[in-house]
Structure formats: structure tokens, C-alpha cells
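Sequence in, structure out. First:
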Amino acid sequence: DGMIQITDLNSNYITTVNEFSENILIRGRAKTSHYAWGAPLIWGNDSWYVAEGSYFGALSDTETNNNFTLYDGSRHYGTVAISLDTWYNIQHKIYNGNWSMWNCSDNFTLCDYADVSISYPYTSGKITLQGTQSGTAYWDYIYVAKYISPEPNYTIGSEEQSTGVTITLISPDDGAVTTKLKNFFSANLTTPDGKSLKNATLYVWEPDGSLLGTNFTDSINGQTSAIVNLSLSGFYPAEGFKWAYYACSNATSEACSWSENKTLHVKAIVNSIDYNSTTYETKRETFTLNITAPEEYTPTNCKFVYDGTEYSISPLDLGNDQYLLTKTIDVPTVTSAGNKSFSFEFKLGTLTQTESYQQYVDTINFSYCDSSPFINISFQDEIATVPDNATIYSQWNYWLGSGTTYKTYAYQNTSENPYYAFCFSPSNQTLFTNVSLTYGNSDSPQRKYVDSLTLTNQTTNITLFLLSSGDGMYVTFQVLSANNEPIKDVYVTAEREIDAVWYLIESSYTDDAGSVTFWLNPNYLHRFNFTKSGYEKYVTTLIPTQSTYTVTLGSVEIEENVSYNLGITYNILPTDTVLSNGTNYTFAFNISSSYWDLEGYGFTLKDENGTTIGSAIGYKSSGGMAATTVNTDNYTKITMEYFWIINGTYMRGSTYWYVKYTKKGEFSLMKFVEDLKSFSNAGMNDFTRALIAFAIIFIVVGLVCYISGTYSPLTIAALTFFLVCALDYVGLIPQVGKVKHFIPILTGLLLIGLIIHEYRS
């Protein structure tokens, strides 16, 4: 607070002023909303009064409870509810005062509403203001205007300012995000005019405004400037922690200052987000979020939300508080191209965290066209095998992904044409479609073509056959189960051999009665195929001379839970089981899937203590290699925990390597062994390596026996086993089948058998 003294140009106190006014904007910066009141500090024994236009905490003076009033012998404004971080307007005017008898402060005092006295001295005694000091509440204020009348002969003198502490908050930055439950806060403190610091206190408030805790230090006592770095524990996942410093100097009356507030968020940090920024409707897309969660907290209630549709997902624990959230979907259809919002949502304790993104979705279109078609359908007379014309009615379902989301298109033409072409946009995508097409002409009854097709910009040509009304007959096939019950939706195709080639004549699905009817030529051999999931495929060849045939399909056991290992092959690098310390190795997980679409795959590497030392992730639906380079340092064991994701299910496995400590020189035995290993991999096949290994074993065993004169079978077997193991280590012994180290194991078993035989003898 500063004190204003009003003087004339000769520095004499002014004895009478007509008017003194102030207009101030204030903002409450307390930790929470509270009640407070404010007043200009005015005291003296002269008669004076406050204008009716004075008010506090209101937009006008119509709120009379905010006007300046007399309260227990002191003067202040009425109590007002003050909201946190809200600016308020204060105006007051004082008329007809004898300024030689009393003073007015530059700033007014703000107090909470309660029964505590604050005394202010003046020359003739003191005046008492009733209320509670703001304590940890503090305020920003801006002077809008200050006015004294009459103006020409008077000037406002200097303001006497209290010596405070300048506080500059250093770290963390405002709005910073952390995963730590104990955090450090640093600030730079300085004092002007040669004053010295006395103490500083760190304050941290929870998001609801309640005090989380404080940390006090007086280690800065006597310094004119200092950087303090105090910590506080007890954080939990939440957004909106506020922190500030309160510092004091040794100036008169112990001048203290508050810093500004800064905000800290304790929540998960996004390490990476992997998705295609642009895509097409119906296309299959994978979205993967890699996060580091706050210490001791595991993400729960995880969701993936795409354009308002929610999908539950499970987090994959990568170790060291890292988690992987992933989801694969078929992108919904859109009416026009544009951005679609998607987000990952998860809970950390009571905090629900949402990470939102956008993906640009373009449209796809399949339609009739005249040029550059994906598919061209033409017609031919079945008897004459010459081109023919036909009308068409077609219905298409088409998509880019798995087919769970698709678009539809219908096209018909009642005019007979020799062909119909259909195009697709975008032309660089592979299109999947189901088509149901009816065709015919004035001479030929209608036939049906039903099929599932995969189309590209390399035109697919389909020829459909027409049979005149005088050359065919309707033939109905009824498909029954082993219990003589009709089977619906059996896919049936009728083929006919023309010029030694089987051509599709007609195709369709059975109806509710298990029946399907074709228009067939009764003079030629036809082949019929009956397929439906859950039943054995049935194929028969016959000349269709009857109007009705009955087909019985035998059921097969349906594997309800298809293994997520089906069609999965993988290999892991490095292939050595023992690694050298202090060496860089490429660790890789190479996976391929021929049956399932992979949503993700990868691994984490951990040392003997379970600490993560590396990781790698891949996202190709058909598989690929996830790799990283790690130095073995002084580890004794490295474990790889690998995984792949299918339909939100994580398949896991692990393998490990031992790390040996080696000290090698340029001409050491270890250097020779490593050079030999490198040589064994230099373009040689298994036969070459086996031949070299056999020669080495034969020569070494022969020389040892010749020089030592030892020809004991047990000695020769032991020496052979040792050589086989050594040569297997350097890679000269080829692997037999899928069993690693098969030949050393077999040689060892032979040695054990020989030892048992020797002792029994």
C-alpha cells in the first residue's frame, strides 16, 4: 500500500480540496471464491463524506449494499462475493475535506469478512477497520484514473512504496504436463534498494482451489537475490494444479510479495500418435496412441471414439509406465469429403483424459462409365459363341476395408447393349465388391450372376452367356441338410465346358426353401458347386435333363474360436543365444500374417532387473519388421517381450539372451572366433559349412590321436563332442529341422552312452 500526500508547487500541504477521486480495477487472486470488502484508508477528525457514486464490486451504484458506509466507527464498503480471477470495478469520491487533518491511501485495503481488527495510525490517534486480513488471498489492481479538484494550482506528490520482493517463476512452464507425483518448482527472487531476502514459501493448490501443500525455506536469509527450487509431493492425476511463491524481505514491516500463479497438469504424456492423416470411407485404418502414464497409475476404461462411435480397447503395458492403445476400424461412410474427429479416452484415477485428433476422409464412388473401367461386362450367345446384347439390372455393395462398412450402387438399363463398363474413384485403390446382376434379352430368358470380386485399375473382363428360349429349360436345385431341412443362402454356381474350358453360366443363392433355379441347356454336361460356411463343399457334374434335383450337404464342425496364431510366422534377431557385452546389436521382431489383419506388433527389451532398455513397434496389417539397436553394455541378460494385436487381442511371447563379459585384443582367441563366425556367414550354404566342419573335426582328431598316441574311443568321442560344440557356436554346424543345436545334442547323447558303456564294462 502507498500513501498519497497532496501539496502545492512549493511542497506545502494543501489544507482544502474540493474533491479527491479514484477509479480502480481489481482482480481477486485468492485460492478460492470468498467474501471480501474494500475501502480507501481515510482518517482524521474533520467533517467529510463519500459521494453516493462510490461503489465496490458492482457495475453501478444502484446496489446500495456496496456503497461506502459507516461500520463500527470505521468506514468501508459492504461485503461482496468475490470470484476467483474475476475483475471488479471500484470508484470512490471524497468531497470537502480538511487535508491538513487527514490522509488518504493510494490503494485501498481489502479484507475478508470476519471479526478481526486492523489498526492504522495517524497523528491524532488511530482508526480501526473491522475484518479479517486476506492472508493467502492476494490481488491484482490497475489504476484507471486519479483526480484532484481544483487542478490548476495543485499536483500529486510522490507515492511512498513499500519495499517488496520481485519473484520470477522459472519452471515448470505455465500449463506444463508431468507424470511425476513429486514435483520441483523453481523461482528467481530479488530485492531492490539493497534489502535482503528473509524467506520463501511454495504454495500449491488443487484444481478445486483447496490447498495441496506448502514448502518453506529460510536458507535464502541475508541474500539479495536467490534461485529457490522447492518440491512438493502428493500429486495425483488431475488438470489445473496452481502454484505460486510467497517471499519476504527484511524491509521495515517485513515486506512480502506474491508471485503470479502458474498451472500444472498431472496426466499422461503422449509419446506418439500413429494414423493416416487422410483416408477414404470404408477403408480399414489402424489408430495407435503411445502414452506415458503418471507413476503408479494404469489407464482404465479405455475407449476409442470415431465420429461419435465408441469402441472399448485394452491397453498394452510396454513397461516403464508406457502403454499402447490401438484400434482398427473400417472408416464410416460420409456424404462429402471432410475432417472427422476421433479420440482416445482413458481414466487415470479419477481423471478422464481425452486426446483428440482429426482425419480427413475422402469419398469413394463406383458407377457406370464409358472409359477406363475397373470392370467390363459383355455378353455372348451360349450356342453360337458370338457376341450378343442384353438388358441389365445390377446391385453392388463395394468397399475398401474388411466389408463391415460398405456403400451400395444400383444400375439398370432396359436397352439391349453389347457391354456395360463400371469405373471406380479413386483409381489407385483396390476395390472389393459383391454384385447381384440379372440380364437377358428379347430372345433369351433372364439369367443371374452373383459373385464377389476384387477389382483394380487393371480392367477385369467378365463374359456372361445368353441362352435362347428354345434351347433351354428351367432346372431347380433344392439343398437340404442331413436332417432333410432346407438350407438358405447356399452359394450355387453352374458351369459349362465350352472348347475345353469351364465357363460360369449362372450363379445365385438358395432362398428360404433351400431352392435355386437356373436356365440351362439340357444337351450339355454341366458342373455345379454348392458352398456354405459350416457345410462340406459339394461338387457334382451332370446333364440337366430333370426339372428338379435334390442336394444334401453334410455339416462340418465350425471352429468357433479360431486361433490368433493362424497364419502367423515370425523370426527374432539376433539369432545368437549368447551376446558379447559392450556391443551394439540389432534386435528385431519380423512377423508375417497370411490370415489375420494385424493391428500392431512389436517388442520391449528389458535387462536382468526388468528395466526397459529399448522398444520397437510396427503397424502394417500384413506384418513387417520392428527393430531397434541396443548396446549390451554390462547387462547379464536381455529379455525380449514381443506381441502382436488382432481384433484388439494381444498375443504375447518372450525370449532372452545371455550377455557374456569378454576382453579381447586384436590377436586374441575371441577375435579369431568372431572372425571365423563372420567368415562362416559370408555367402556359404549349409552343405559348404558342414563340409568344412567335417574336415576340421577329421583333421584335428587325427592329429591329436597321432601325436598323443591315444586311440581310446571315449577320448575320441569327447574330443569330437567338444569340436562339434565349438563349430556350432561359430555357425559352421548347420541346423537340422526346427531343433536348434540338434547335432551337438546328438553328439552329446552318444558321448553319454559311450561313458555308460565303458563303466559297465
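Second:
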Amino acid sequence: MTTIGTATTLGRKSVVQTLGGAPHVSNRRLSLSKRPTYFGLRRISGDLWQHAASSLAPRAVNKGKHSCVSVCCASNAAKYDHSVHAEVVQTDFVVVGSGIAGLSYALRVADHGKVAIVTKDVAHEGSTRYAQGGICAVLDASDSVESHISDTVVAGDFLCDLRAVKMVCSEGAAAVLELVDMGAEFTRSSSGDLHLTREGGHEHKRIVHAADMTGREIERVLVEKALAHPNIQFYENHFATDLVTVQEGDATRCVGIDVVERATNKDIRFVSAVTMLASGGAGHIYPNTTNPVVATGDGIAIAARAKAHIANMEFMQFHPTSLYVEPDENAAVSRESVFLITEAVRGEGGLLYNAAGERFMPKYDSRLELAPRDVVARSIDDQLKKYGDKCVYLDITHKPAEEIMEHFPNIAAHLQHSLGLDITKDRIPVVPAMHYTCGGVKTGLKGDTSLPGLYATGEVAYTGLHGANRLASNSLLEGLVYSIKAASASTKYVETNARQSTSLFENAAEEFYSREVSIPPEDPKAVKYALNVLMNLRRKLQATMWENAGIVRSNTRLLDAMEQVKRLRMELEAISAEVDIHSLATIDCELKVEHFELLNLFTVSELVVVSAMMRKESRGLHFTTDYPYKVEGERRPTVINTPLKSARKKIRRKLTLNRSGIGRELAQ
């Protein structure tokens, strides 16, 4: 977190860029030979914020859709070895993430102001693109909103916020049909209607899908719409590092976000009336995950550092059926994602067998293969530990081959290419893998967080919809519905608050401009060594979390996880001092990103462990051998609303003094 007036973080003095958007300054970049004057902000031509820099217009050059003011200062040869670059970009809305949540939100607010979409990779990369199964919508006459509500609450093990569930289930169909109107080409039945399938935990067929590549189709439509909107600017390959906050008396307000441009290693501060986190989950705190490589919990971590409230981080969903592949000892496993075998395979009749050829789900749950994900994942985990096997097998070969190929063409092609398997004839080797973060930045029904000016939607957020376990295909729906709600609320927030905060935004830009940092000589060997160290620490962290805070937990394991994460942090600090990673990161962007990602993984891992320690029961995705049953008194969200460092100390002290019970003082 960067707090204006109270703290400073890494930064550099030399370039300031201000984004406005008035017709007379649009598409302009202004080069000055000295520090710029901060001009007054005003409302012009329908834009919520404008930067009045018309007097500088004759020196403008083209810079995309937005105008900017920049300053380039030559390096002091005695202190720096080369020029240092930084920018400040001013906009109405900044969105971190370009999946269904971020893009849906951006398209809504873009009619009310300028929008900057900051995305860690290319625009279409993220969890949405890899979603296979589909998106829920109550569209069939035999189905009902009440049934969808019931299925969601049961899957969430009765920990859901009923207000959130009712809102999403009631408004879901209209939101999905809006995607159809935008041009999403979902699979149709022979009658021409949207084809609906069923997945685990659902009483009815209500999953709208595009074969087994639903997320890719949704992402295609939304990216195309966003690229075509004149008020939306993409900033691809920009990595968010911290929120920017200001103090207003006792209150803290978010006024933007700091990022690094990966192509140039340039530090950029986005100063905005509204910051929307839509950055996805945190799958890579574990070694086995279906999440894309960008899912390192960045949004959750930076919000936690800014002291935003975080909730229900103990509930990490492990998808029961990811493709098992023999491990490659030479591969960088800490950065790889496993291939997901969608829930829909079981929804269409797929059966689970152990290595001995025995169908085992009848031993665990009356719902068999269609039990909720937490039940199926623990059942598979129990089979693997009981018999020492590496995987179990998913069998859909009893279904007609034409039907299999029609519904699952992407899975069939991937398995044929990677393992030489024919899913119409061969069983699929599967194991559980971390899949979805049910907790996150705590929000209200309109995506608002505990920090004014900061909103969150999608997997990065805890909305209360999922409770202790997410129902299949509710994730895309949540991101869609909450983005619509957040767009309406945040637009009103800008109109109400923005014009009263001119000085706060100017101070945020001024503070960023005034920072300085020394640049060391280039040292490729030191950079390579530092990168290897960071990757090794990442692997150790992932192994610790898988062993001690994975599918099955205990007080002893969780305490061990906390101590090991603490030791790994200390190891990072020692090595950082030894090779000066902070300085090396100023000359190597890969190192800078790896360093920030590791810090974020540490933060999210600690949030998971602390939250798990706070819950004295087993519920949904959280199963602990010390408290194997549900407890009615524990049926409430786990909220961390104090600095994480304080939370760790309280939990460690409680658990060390009394191994038989863990306090919940940190929860509201």
C-alpha cells in the first residue's frame, strides 16, 4: 500500500503523465523540460474529470485515446547510471483485470467517464478464458430461481449471505441473455434454444455453455466490445503492485493504484476517482492449480496491505478432476497450471473409479459423482491416501461417442494431443487441484469495500454468494451480476465525491513524482541468482501450503504452515539484503514482478492460514481433523479487519497457549 503523506515506497523521479480526455487535449502527450504545474480539474463535455492543459496543446504528440503530461529528467551521473522513468495517469475509473468481471464493469462505466483497464498479461488472458463448464441461468420452465437459490445455499454449506444469493440468482438470467444480445455464441439445442446442461450440486439443467469453451467465447465478446469503446484504454502487460490511499481525518480513501509496465520496467501511478479490483484468484499458492499463471492473489494481497477487510480465505476450492500427468522433475512446476476436466463431464454421466477399477463415490455420498466439489475432492483425496495411488479415473466411455465429442471437443483434443487418450474409449486420469478462491476482499451488495473509492468484483472478492463452497458455474455469473451492480454504485460515487477531492488526487500525483531511487549498474549474474532464489522460495511456499493448508487440515499443520511461511519471509529478507533485490529490480522487470508476486503469495498464504485457524469447525471446503463437525455457533464469515501482522501474532499466541482451541477475536 502507498499512503500519501504518511509513508513512501519504491518509486522514482522523472516522468509524470496525466490522463484527462477533454476534446481539446485528447490523444496528446506533452513533453516539458521541468516539473509540471498541476492544473485544476473540472467537468467538461460529459466526462467526470478533465485536466485543463490546453495552454500546453501546441507541444502535444499522439498517445492513444488519452491525453497526458510528461516530464523527463536527466539522471544525475553521480547518483544514477541511466535515466529513470515514471508516469502518473489520471482517469475516472481504473480497472485491474480483464476477465468477465472487469470487462463487464468497464463497459458499463465507460459511458460515464474515461476507463483504464490494467491487465497483467494480454487482454484476453485470465481465468475467464479457461472456464469450460458454463454460466448459470434459470431459463428452463421446469427450473426456478428458488431452486437455484437452494442449490447455491446447500453447496455453500449454509454459510452464504442470502441477500447476495437471492440477488445473483434472480438477476442472473437477464445478465446472461445480455451476453447473448452482445453476440456470445452459446451452444444451441436442436430446437434453436440455448442448450442447458447440469453440473454437480444442481437439481436442474441450467448451465449455459459454448461447448466446453464457454469462458473463451465470453472473453471474445467482451474484449471485442471493450476495444471498440472510445472511452476504454487497455494497458496490457502492466502489473499492479499497490493501492494508493489518502487519509481524510480518521478515514482512508483509495485514489488509485501503482503498477509497473512490464515492457519498459516503468513505474506508473494511476490516479482515479474509482479503483475496481477484478484481478482474479490466488491458485498459485499451491503447486497444483487449474488457474492461469497470472493468478497469484495480487488483488487480495494489495487490498490487505491497504487494510481493506478480507473474508473467508480459509475456503479454497479444490476442483476434484484436474488431468493427472506424470511430473517432470525439470519443469518449473511452480509456474505451471494443470488442465481442468470440467464438472460437466460428471454432469453428463461421468463416473469415478480408483486404480483397482472400483467405483468409490457410493461409499461417500448419496449424490455420488454429482456431490458438491468439496465432497468429491475429499473423497478422491481419501482414496489416494488410503491406497497410495497417484490418481483416480474419470470414465465417460459408456456414453455415445458422438455425444461426447459434441459436448467436449476441447477436452478430447487436449487429451489426444498430450497423452494420446481417446476419451470415447479411455478413462481419464484425474487428481484434485486448487481451482477457486471463495474468499477475498469483502464487499457489499454493490461491490463496495471497506475503503471508499475501492470496489471489487469476481474471484478477487468475497461477496457472500459462495459461502463455504462455490456451486459449479456460479463464478462467471457472480462476476457478471456484481459488475453491473458495482457500475451503478461507483458511477454515483464519482458524481458525489470526485469534485470535492481535487487536492487529494493532486497530492497523490505529487507524492509519486517526488520519489527517488538509485539505479545500480547492470549485473546479469546477480539478477539470475536472485530469480533462482525467488523461484525456489515460491516452490517451498507452495509445498508448505499443499501439505499443511490443503484439502485436509489440523491445528498442528496450520501452526507449522504459519511458522514455515514466517521462516520463508525471513529467508527472503536476508537474501534481499545480500543481493539488494530492490535495487536490482529497477533494472530487471522480470525480477521486479517475481519479487512482488512472491510477496503477494506470502500475504495470501498467511490470510488462508490465519482464517483457517480462526474457524473452529469443519464446513464446506474447510476440513480440519481437530474440529471434524459443523458447529452452529461458527456459522458466520471469517473477517480479518486488522493488519495481517497483528492477526498473525494474535492467532499464533492463542494456538501456542491452547492447542485445543483457536480464538475468533479477529472476526466480526
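Remark: The two ends are 23 Å apart (CA to CA).
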